[in-house]
Structure formats: structure tokens, C-alpha cells
Amino acid sequence: SLVNAVSPEGFPPMGLAAYLGHEEVVEYLISKGADVNFTAPSTGFTALTGAVSQRHARIADVLVRHGAQVNHVYEGSLTPLLVATSQGDLNVVRLLLDHGADANLGAIEGKSALDIAKEKGSREIAEVLRQHGATRWVPDAPAEPTSPPAADPKTVLEKVRRAMNAHDLEGLLALIEPEYESEQPAHPDRAFQGREQVRKNWGSIFARVPDLRADVLRTVVDGDTVWTEWHWHGVRSDGTKFDYRGVTLFRIWNGKLMAGRLFMEPVQERKKEGPYGGSP
After folding, report:
1. Which of 34, 190, 198, 224 could share a disulfide with 184, CB 3.0–4.6 Å?
2. Are residues 174 and 110 in the same domain?
3. pTM: predicted TM-score of the whole model, two decimal places
């Protein structure tokens, strides 16, 4: 039919309308039976890839609601999700993931969607991708030998605790991804990225608190996330008390900490009171 006819360049009306941002035309063509998944023979493009490449979020939404394939692979290893991520388009990334896009499918120059988001500093996109199971890109490996099973998150957390108590800075760093991301929601200015900042932070703590102890009070594992209640305590070199309690949320992959959210605060000493309040 005419709605699926192809131009001399190999594009149907739907693909051109989506690429150029003509939302009403796209909706009209769909109502007349246009194929939302028609693939251009010469390029592999579809209406959805065109809409995503030009950041037409509303058209992309119309297309996926009418069955557009969100995991379409073209030009070797490209996907709509990879393109949306490379453009920093959070809304389209969410749209695609919510409609079943595979967060680990395809690669751009050997980089997964998560790799690209982290490289561009797109923290929100990286977090959304992780929530949908995204990992760093790993090239296909031979079937043998079989890789060892992934380390249990609780076991990794215990290794972290032991390294802290042993003041083993290198042992601690060996459990941290090079591109580790840290946040302290109560102190936004303390956010950082990179294992070297972990070295600076914990190297300073070990030097200032020679008898530091890290006690784990409670641990809960939820998928790749470990929720832990901690008590970090000791005496600083100047004789003052070091006493912190709180909760950390660490995301773990392949036996290493990828990201952390820390809710650690100094313990407030209670004022001494008598049996009826006030001074004893």
C-alpha cells in the first residue's frame, strides 16, 4: 500500500515523518496501517531509530505504544537506547527501558550504554540504567574455561569491613571499581567519582584514627545492592573521639563496589539528665 511505499532513497513515509518530527503525520500513517517496524534495506533504520536520533520524544512514545521494536539493532551494534544515552536524553532512555529495552544490548566502539553514561557524566541516566540491570560492556569470551560464579554481595561487604579494620588501604581499593561513584545525599558537595578519591579519603582516616574499628550492625542484600548499618569508631591522634553511625547502600558487580550512597553521621552525645529531666 502507499503508506508503506518506499522512496528512491529507501525510506517509507513513516520513517521520514518520524525523522523530521511530524507527529500528526506519524499518527495518521499508523491509523492507515503503516508498518511501525519497517526497516530501510540500505541502512537498517526504522521509524523509532529516526525519532530517537533526532530526539523526538513524543513521536518515540507514539511508536513504542504501537509496537515499535525497542531492541532493534542496526549498523552492526547500535540500538535506540545506545543512541538516546549518547545524546543524554533521559526521557527517551526511560521510555525505552519502560517498554522493555535491553540495557546491555549492543555497543558503541566497545562501550555499553552504562559506559557511555558514565563517560559523559550523565549520573541520572547511569542510575536508571543500573536499575534496569545495566553493566559495563564485556566482549564475548570463549565458552571455556567457564567463568567463576560472581562473588556474593554479603561476602564482598565482609571483605570491605576486614580491610577497614586491618587498615589495609590497598586491600580496600582492590574491592573498588576504578570509576566508583560516591554520593552523600545529606552532603551533596562531597560527591565524587573515581577510586583515587577513595584512596585519599580512607588514607586520611587511617592516618588520623590509628585504632579505627568498623562494626557491621545489620546487612540486607537486595539484588546487587547491599544495605548496611555501620558503626565506625576510634580515637583520633589528637585525642578526640571519632564516632560515626549510619547506613550505606553499595552496588556490587563482579566482586567490586561500583557505586555507594552514604548516610553516615557523627554520633551526638546525649546530655546527662536527672530522673525528672534537667541536671542530675
Report:
1. 190
2. no
3. 0.51
Of 237, 231, 82, 223, nearest to 154 by C-alpha is 223
Task: Look up the CATH number of the domain holding residue 100.
Answer: 1.25.40.20
pLDDT in tens, 85-117: 998 999 999 999 999 999 999 888 788 899 889
What's the sign of the alpha-carbon dihedral 245, 248, 254, 259? negative
Give the strand pairing for 241-253 and 225-235. Answer: antiparallel
Determine whether 157 is exposed, middle or buried from the number of CB atoms within 10 Å of its CB (0-12, 13-18, 19+).
buried
| Residue whose C-alpha is closest to residue 227's, from 237, 240, 218, 238 | 218
Could you tell me if residue 271 is inside a domain?
A: no
Question: Which residue type does 90 have?
Answer: L
In this predicted model, what pLDDT tens digit does every residue of 187-224 receive, in sequence order? 989 999 889 999 999 999 999 999 999 999 999 888 77
What secondary structure letter does DSSP report for 4?
A: G
Report the largest interatomic distance among the alpha carbons of the chain, rounded to a whole angstrom: 93
User: Helical H runs in the chain?
Assistant: 13-20, 23-31, 47-53, 57-65, 80-86, 90-98, 113-119, 123-131, 153-165, 169-173, 195-208
- Domains in the chain, number: 2
Please name the residue that has the C-alpha cell 573515581.
194
Residues of the domain holding 186: 153-266
